[in-house]
Amino acid sequence: MPLPLRVAVVGAGHLGRHHARIYAGIPQVQLVGVADVALDRAQRLATAHGATAAVSDYRDLIPQVDAASIAVPTRGHFAVARDFIEQGRHVLIEKPFAYSLAEADELLRLADLRGVAIQVGHVE
């Protein structure tokens, strides 16, 4: 994978703030953007950590990144991760990984099919 690794953070709440801060401090990573349903929250976090994009729809970031951290409420993990994985993007998903075992199994199946990595986040 070429460097810098281009990354998005989806979810600008408590855990998303940690992901953005950590990515911003890694020289081999470019924090491209932050997505949150509350655009003002995404803008504040993006500005604080030098990201170039802040959006309310995470799908706008998919073409711009190699990977994404998903730090939305657990019920949203599946849909967000699926959208990134289906476009060949690696994902780091905050714990709990999925809302159900069926969702977890489907994400693993999709990741295997697309050849991307899934990591469970343990930021704290």
List keywords for this structure.
alpha/beta, six-stranded parallel sheet, 6 strands, single chain, 124 residues, 36% helix
- Record field, number of beta strands: 6
Q: Please state the CA-atom Rg, rounded to the nearest Å.
A: 13 Å
> Which structural class matches the secondary elements?
alpha/beta
How is the main sheet built?
A: 6 strands, parallel
Contiguous runs where pLDDT drops below 50 for at least 5 residues: none
Number of helices: 4
Biggest sheet: strand arrangement: 3-2-1-4-5-6
| Strand residue percentage | 15-25%
> Average pLDDT value?
95
- Roughly how many Å apart are the termini? 27 Å
The helix fraction, in percent, is 25-40%
Shape: globular
Helix and strand element order: EHEHEEHEHE
Oligomer: single chain
Describe the structure.
The protein is an alpha/beta fold and 124 residues long. The chain is built from 4 helices and 6 strands; from the N terminus they run E-H-E-H-E-E-H-E-H-E. It has a 6-stranded parallel sheet with strand order 3-2-1-4-5-6, with helices on both faces. Helix 2 links the parallel strand 2 and strand 3. Helix 3 packs parallel to helix 4. The longest helix has 14 residues.
